[in-house]
Specification:
By secondary structure, this protein is of the alpha/beta class. Helix content is 37%, strand content 10%. It has a single domain, classed as Alpha-Beta Barrel (TIM Barrel), CATH 3.20.20. Helix 4 links the parallel strand 3 and strand 4. The radius of gyration is 15 Å and the shape is globular.
């Protein structure tokens, strides 16, 4: 069950970072949607994108049956670190994500099992 996923714009980047790198002008959400549309047209099975853009991606005309994987997941009360476009696990799923990626909030926790369990408990209510 191999799936090809395309990265849209890293969740650690915002408009200021894109300007500094001379990336195309425009709203980040619009750029992500444009890249997702092109990835789907090219045959990608899904995209990796911020949970803040999941809803825009899901509404694309060619997004039916495509995967949306969202990094930048931060449970309430956790630090953003270098991530700039984040959401809670619940927000990510409500915005249309199929899968979430949670790294530092678990790996950086004193009690990794408890941190993961809290996220799973939160997701039971979605």
């Amino acid at each position: 069950n191999l799936a090809i996923l395309a990265v849209t714009i890293l969740t650690s980047l915002d408009r200021i970072d894109l300007d500094a790198a001379l990336i195309k002008n425009g709203d980040v959400k619009d750029l992500v949607a444009e890249r997702a549309f092109k990835a789907f047209e090219a045959g990608a099975d899904g995209v990796i994108a911020s949970p803040q853009e999941s809803m825009a991606i899901r509404s694309l005309p060619n997004a039916a049956n495509k995967l949306i994987v969202t990094p930048g997941i931060r449970p309430l009360g956790t630090k953003f670190g270098d991530q700039k476009r984040v959401a809670t696990p619940t927000e990510a799923l409500l915005n249309g994500a199929d899968h979430i990626v949670v790294g530092r909030p678990i790996v950086g926790s004193q009690n990794k099992k408890l941190a993961a369990a809290k996220i799973l408990e939160e997701l039971k209510h979605v």
